[in-house]
Fold:
Amino acid sequence: MNIVAIDIGGTSIKGGLYEVIQHQLTLKKQHKVESSLHETSTALSFDVQLHGLIKTLLNNNTAAAIGISTAGFVDYSGKRVFSGNDYLSPLKTPHFAQQLAYQYGCPVSLINDCDAAQLAIAKKGCFEGYQNYGIMVIGTGLGFSLSKNGQRWKPDRKHPALGAIDTPMGNFDKIVSASQLANYSSKQDLTEIFVNKEHEDLREEYLKNLVKVIKSASLIYQLPIIYLGGGLVNATESVNYPLEDELNQRILGWEDFIVESKVICMQAGNQMQLEGAAHLAYAESFASTAKFEEDFSKLPTEASSAQMLHLEELSSQELVSLSLKYEDEAAQALQSQEAAIAEVAQAVYHAIAQGGRLIYVGCGTSGRVAAMDAVELNCTYGLDKDKSLALISGGSAEAAVSIEEEFEEDASAIPDLLNLNLNQNDIVIGISASSTAYYVRSALGYAQGLGIPNCLISVQKPTDKVFYQHHIALGSGSEMVIGSTRMKAGTATKKVLNAISTTAMVLDGRVAGQYMVGVACFNDKLVTRAQTILHELFGIDAQVALSLLKNNDMNLANVVKTLRENA
Structure:
């Protein structure tokens, strides 16, 4: 399988041909051309150059997918650049990526260059646990992206424009620009700045300003680790200049700084964008096969009742009665799915037991219901925060507000899954009442392609194609308000997720009797609850129970385990 990756920069366009063997990507060929993009460039001249580069890489072969990394703001669905420097105008044409896909007969994914670098870093296993990371790509300007609490963080569906922050010295883009720094050398060679003694003062001033930018990012976004990539890292690496050490020594000198930050320079830092684009393209080669392509009007979630109701003619009590009747129907329909739910609950337990993660993927109501279930498993059962996650179309930053404004469910979940570095120990549960949301289908198609356990939850089993391992049918049928799947389908989804996660947690030993022994004792109510649990299970009075809790750092699970072992 051939994967083509392109990185479009301000001065050059790089391309790479990757071969895939057993899900591992290997760079087989690379080619770079001087970019034809400038403020007056035309879409035609750029198209000629781009197609020439792709054809050079393929050499009459075909590509399974193409991934393109570029400067500028890329829309959420990865189809075009919607904002950025004037020279990017050829990439701003509507459906830029879709037109390429048609020409090459394969999926084409477009992504911001710093977001691409973030995916490459994630795939190397660099993002661990439930903490924040910043990614800075420094070349012509400053690219910046965030991984927050284990997930890509894009407020209002955009990556943070750190480079646009203005100062009396100019904006951050200008202050840390590696290209502008190179202009001070006799040959416009950035490496000269870092090896020649005559540039020592200039070098020191640049590093001082770079550290200020890093400090600002760390303060604003609470970042313990910042990864650096791009032309700056490449240049310093090529002359063995210890950029990482120099920056971290200066960071250690910060006073009254509330975040302990560390800089990590990525080896071959200028390759990160290309590599990330390749990973994205490869994943999309699986995901695209799951796309819904049939008639939306025939979906059960769009169907009307057997007898059309005129709700506007009913009284408030009649409306309430009817609503509760519909909700009861949703619960009753699930009885036929007990075996399927139990099978998935067992798979979730198996994933958690071997150190994997439960990853929900959903859109709109489905995503919000999933997020509610995922976040509760930590405080209710003591499951580590990074072991139960919910990916929501539009981004988790928008989960509490409307997230159905810009066709988010038609976007791909692949960048979010790549950021999590999905592995064989995980399980992916996708929730889409209609079963059509590409955000959900792409996640399940990718997981299925990699052989990772997965499940689709929808009103009924899709009839167009199989892109999942397990299926749970909500059976909720038509809604009281047609198409409003936050109602019956939402209720049924909540019931299914409750059953799955609760069963998995019990199987994982996080419940004793009917008590949740992994409960976090972080307020008076929960401490009292823990004392009651110890009394009911072991007959211990409140004071002894409190003493045992204090001796175990208020960890109820440890107390229960110790008492059971000593029984």
